[in-house]
Specification:
This protein has 4 helices and 7 strands; from the N terminus they run E-H-E-E-E-H-E-H-E-H-E. By secondary structure, the chain is of the alpha+beta class. The strands form 2 sheets. It has a 5-stranded mixed beta sheet, with helices on both faces. It has a two-stranded antiparallel ribbon with strand order 2-3. It is globular and about 50 Å long.
Amino acid sequence: MNDHAEPIRFDTKIAVLLREDLEPWQRLNVTAFLVSGLGTQVPEVIGEPYEDADGVPYLPMFRQPVLVFEGTKETLTRAHARVLSRSLPRALFTSDLFTTGNDRDNRAAVRAVRTEGLDLVGLAVYGPKNAVDKVLKGARMHP
């Protein structure tokens, strides 16, 4: 059986939305943190483990591409409201998390701010393509 005969199409989407004013290192760091949350709560996004020709095992990764978008602070605020209204699996990163150094302090920093006051710099979302597209309305693909 040839696993490469037909391209695999997904009816779901994994997307990350970053605030456009982040430094390059921040974009990478925020993206890594955001997508780490999806695999823990949405196990179907994770594929099978890898193995090279010598039989050395590697950890599984996402089974589908992660699309990265960018937008203004206002775009992130609107996307956040949309993702909440659609109850889609999501992860967030706020500007406060750049000043903390561990998971406990990260969670405390988010918990200290009401939803409408969160200073979002990143948001990850997973769900049906059309729902994720509606959440990301106004955002553009990351260059």
